[in-house]
Amino acid sequence: MPPRQIRRYAASAAVAFPGVDAFLDPILASIATHDMTIMRSGGRFEIGSPYGTARLEARSRQLLLSVETDSPDALNRLKHALVGPISFIAASEKLEFAWTGDETGLTPLEDLRVLRVRDTTHLTPCIRRIVFEGEDLSRFDRDDQLHCRLIFQPKGEASPQWPALNERGHIHWPGQRKLATRVYTIRAIDPAKGEITIDFALHGRAGPATRWAVDASPGDLAGIVGPAADGPRPARFYVLAGDETGLPGIARILEKLDGGVHGFAFIEIDGPGEKLPLVRPTGIEVRWLDRNGAEPGTTTLLIDAVRSVVWPSDLSHSFFWGGCEHAAFRQIHRHLRTEIRLPRERQVFYSHWHRSLSEEQIVAAGAEAYLPD
Ligand SMILES: Cc1cc2nc3c(=O)[nH]c(=O)nc-3n(C[C@H](O)[C@H](O)[C@H](O)COP(=O)(O)OP(=O)(O)OC[C@H]3O[C@@H](n4cnc5c(N)ncnc54)[C@H](O)[C@@H]3O)c2cc1C
Alpha helix (H) ranges present in the chain? Predict the structure, then answer.
C-alpha cells in the first residue's frame, strides 16, 4: 500500500510594516521566548514550534510570514504564536495581518487546559499559594519553559466558556465576554498527580488576577495556556534576582540546581514576615532585601544588590535569571549589558509588571512598557 498522505495546512501573510528593520531583533527575541526555535537562512528566518513550522522575512517595508502545520487547530495556534509577540512588540505600528491560504474557521486553543482549584494556603501574608488540579498537564512540565498564561473564570461560573482562535491568529471570546488573563510562573508541577502550583503575590493595587487569587476557593476554575519563557541554563556561577513576582521562579530554579554551583539570590520583599524557606545549593547565598515600608517598585534594592556582585572573569560559565518591576528590570538590564557585558545567551530576564500600568495597558503600550532601553 502506498504510504498515507499526511494533510498539511498552510497560510501566508504580507504585512505592511514600514519600520520593520528597527523592530526585527526584539520581535525575533520575543518569538524565541515563546517556545520556538529560530534559524537564520540567508535573509529569512526558519521557525520551529510545537505547532508546526514558520518562515519570517523582512523585505521592502513588509514582514512576510508563512506557516505550515498538520492540523487546522495548529494552523491558527501557530499564527497566534507569531501574531501575538509581533503585535505586542510593534504595538505602535498597529499592524494588520491578512492571511491567505487554508481556511480553518474558529479553532480551539490546542494548549488550553482547564484547571480547578484544589487547595489554597497563605505562605506569607502577601503570598497565596494555589494548587490546581487538571488533566493532561505534561506539556507544562518543562524546566526550560517556566511561565504560563492563566485565564480566570468568574466564581461559580456554571457553564464556563473558553476563548478560541480565529483565522487571523487573534483570540476570539465567545459572546464577546472577555475574561481577565495574566502571566504567572509555574512554581511546581506534577503531571502524574494532575497538579500545578502557582504562588500569587497579593499586591495593594489589586487587579483582576490578584482579586481572583484572594477570593479563590476549591472548585474555582482557571484556564492555562503555554508554557513559555526560557528557564535557567547550565552554569557554575548564578545570580538570581527578583521581587515577590520573581520569587516563584527563583525558588523553583534554586531547588533544581546542582550542589556544586555558587552565586547569589537577591529577593526584594515587603518585610521579614515575607521570607520563605528555600531549598538551595549551599554555595548560593540568599539575601532578602527588605523594602522597609516603601511601595513595591520604588526602591533601588535589587540594582544595588546586583551591582555588589563580583563576577568571575570568564563569564561563559555564569548565568543571570530575574523577574521584577519594569524600572528595576531596566536598571539591572543596562548594568548587565554595559558594565558586566554579560552575553545575551547567559541571561534570562523579564519585566514582570509595571508600577503605573495594568497588564492591558502594558499590552497597549507595547515594547516601550516591557523591553529594556
Ligand atoms: C513572565 C512573568 C511571570 C510572572 N510570574 C508571577 C508569579 O509567579 N507570581 C506573581 O504574583 N506574579 C507574577 N507575575 C506578575 C503578574 O503577572 C503581575 O503582577 C500582574 O500584573 C498581576 O495582575 P493584576 O490583575 O493583579 O494587576 P494588573 O491589573 O495587571 O495591574 C493593576 C495595578 O497593580 C499594579 N501591580 C501589578 N502587579 C503588581 C505587583 N506584583 N506588585 C505591586 N503592584 C502591582 C500595576 O502597576 C497596576 O497599577 C509574572 C509576570 C510575568 C511577565
Answer: 20-32, 72-89, 208-215, 247-256, 301-307, 326-334, 359-365
What pLDDT score does 285 carry? 98
The answer on pLDDT for 2 being more than 90 is no
Q: Is the CB of 208 under 6 A from ligand 1?
A: yes
Between the CA of 352 and the centroid of ligand 1 the distance, in Å, is 6
pLDDT in tens, 101-155: 998 999 999 999 999 999 999 999 999 999 999 999 999 999 999 999 999 999 9
Among left, alpha and beta (phi > 0; psi -120 to 50; other), residue 274 is alpha
| CATH 3.20.20.140 is the classification of domain 9-104 | no
What average pLDDT score do residues 309-324 get? 97
Ligand 1 pocket, residue 200 CB under 6 Å: yes
Report residue 3's pLDDT band, with 50, 70 and 90 as the boundaries. low
Q: What is the DSSP string of 187-235?
A: -EEETTTTEEEEEEEP-TT--HHHHHHHH--TT-EEEEEEEEEE-----
Q: What is the CATH number of domain 108-230?
A: 2.40.30.10
Domains of the chain by residue range: 9-104, 108-230, 237-369
CA distances from 78 to 26, 30, 67, 98, 226 (A): 19, 14, 7, 15, 12
Mean pLDDT to the nearest integer, 348-368: 91
The pTM of the full predicted model, rounded to 2 decimals, is 0.95
Q: Which residues is 86 bridged to in the sheet?
A: none
What is the fold, at CATH topology level, of the domain defined by 237-369? Rossmann fold (3.40.50)
Q: What is the pLDDT, as a whole number, of residue 1?
A: 64
Cell of 64: 512576510
- Which among 146, 351, 352, 370 is the best mutation to test ligand 1's pocket, defined by most ligand atoms within 8 Å of the CB? 352
